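ok so i was messing around last nite and threw this chain in just to see what happens. nothing serious, just curious
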Amino acid sequence: MKAMLIATLLAASPAARNIEMNVTDKGFEPSRIEVKKGEPLHLVVTRKTDATCAKELVIKDQNLRKELPLDKAVAFDFTPNKTRRDDVRLRHGNDQRRAGCPVSAAPG
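result:
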């Protein structure tokens, strides 16, 4: 019975879109990712350099803040809930804008 309930819940939830992003001496790469409102995201960020001030990542709209240790993948799971005009803004710890995820209005 439990297995059936879990299978039903998993089938009802859309799979998260996997996105990989690196922090290099050029900043966040890619610097822009197109996402859709209501689309679950699994963002994996890896800091590849010490020559950056981006040693943590902040996604203010989602109340997410995580350290970015060197050469270690860090996952952020969230669902954008705003439209393109608002963006999901990725910032490093000193709050400078470094990358954006424009959000389109239609889910799916």
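not much to say yet. Residues 100-108 have pLDDT under 50 and may be disordered.
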